[in-house]
Amino acid sequence: MEKQAPQNGPLEEALTISRADIVIGIPSYQNARTVAHVVRAIHAGLVKYFPQYTAVVVNSDGGSTDGTREAVLSTRVEDTHLLLLSHPLFPIHRLSVPYHGIPGKGSAFRLIFQVAERLRAKACAVVDSDLRSITPEWVDLLVRPVLHAGYDFVAPYYHRHKYDGTITNSIVYPLTRALYGMRVRQPIGGDFGISNHLVARYLERNDWESDVARYGIDIWMTTIAITEGFRICQSFLGAKLHDAKDPGADLSAMLQQVVGSVFRLMQEYDPVWRKRVGSQDVDLFGFRFDVGLDPIEVNVDRMLGLFRRACVDLGEIWALALKAETLREVRSLALLAEKENFRLNDELWVRIIFDFACAYKERALDRGHLLRSLTPLYLARVASFVLETQTLYSPEVEEKIEHLCRCYEDLKPYLISNWDGSGPETAETDRKKSAGVMTGGTPDVVDAAKNH
After folding, report:
1. Quick one: which H or E segment has residue 97?
2. Which residues make beta-bridge pairs with 27?
3. Could you tell me whether strands 153-159 and 192-195 are parallel, antiparallel, or unpaired per DSSP bridges?
4. 447 contacts: CB under 8 Å, gap ≥ 6
5. Dist. CA 262–CA 27, nearest whole Å
6. Which of 151, 169, 160, 2 is CA-nearest to residue 76?
7. What pLDDT, on the 0 to 100 scale, is given for residue 165?
8. Does residue 437 carry a pLDDT above 90?
9. pLDDT at 81 over 90
10. Backbone angles phi, psi at 313, to 5 degrees
11. Ramachandran assignment for 150, one of left (phi > 0), alpha (psi -120 to 50 degrees), beta (any other)
12. Which domains are delineated in the chain?
């Protein structure tokens, strides 16, 4: 049964359904090409694995003009094409509704959570609308741990191309792991299962007007679940095949919003992370197997060019964000003539991220300028990673990422020392701040990184 939301809004529309055990949400914007496959997979998963439960599929759309909402409502799935041991007892309702507020994925999630709470759903799951690899089993793997095993948060675990998910691999996973002590491999994966208790906790928060409403939503959800004691697990979903991009292109806004959310949450949960040492595994469900992955082309020359330009244009900003030794090492990298010799090693990279986290906390300069100035450094790290792993296979690349994670954990005392203000260069930083170095406009290289 498909329904277009009436004029009185999606929550009132949800009331006409009255109750649902499971709510599956699909945030979307201009995804007409892929969303029908996602809807079919969800429908098949609900019919096959949860025939005894009432379910609603909610498409929360950001104003698509390409027919995304129409595709959600018109997609047909014939149950006779599925191998079913039992037939569903209830129809699966489908809603497609526009969300309001700050444009972004987080605002879409908020509407999905509101519908789930209104329908008193026992479990809620969200999946990306551009997935090409989703199968009916994803529904089972995201929902069953919540319904039948008492977990509150199910994070995805995928096989991904070694150059897909570079923000995750270089910053978010190892930093979150080092801070909070839990090895959630895909903390910003995009596809999650959530209990009704955790949905309620998300909705009572008052930070929905921040970057949480945009790309910051995934790490926000994961961090709250970890730090506030909710039961967490992971489910192996196989490959994540979606509209992947060159990791050096079109990721500037995402990088700023995700990293900004991580840094802001570090301040909120300071009493939690400073006490935790090392990390531990998180329960993993599903059968792990190797899969083929789409190739990803990476433009290393462009990334290194932006980095070298930034070493000139962003020098004053980096002098406020980075410790003197860190900055010296960064500048020395720009002098390397041969691309093949370029290496931004793990320890230097971790110190860069920790220095930026402390600068964000201390407001050494405008936070927007600070986060934008991280983009060329991130591109340099990705370029170094690509050059180092070109001939390596996935297991060897994963070993490299594991080494980086251990480096984050080992350098945590460095973070705490500088976070508390006991690190070096406080007087020098104060001098530069008082001189007004940080008050200038955003350098051109940052805008160049944003536009590629």
Report:
1. strand 92-98
2. 60
3. antiparallel
4. none
5. 22
6. 2
7. 86
8. no
9. no
10. -75, -30
11. left
12. 2-285 (3.90.550.10), 300-438 (no CATH)
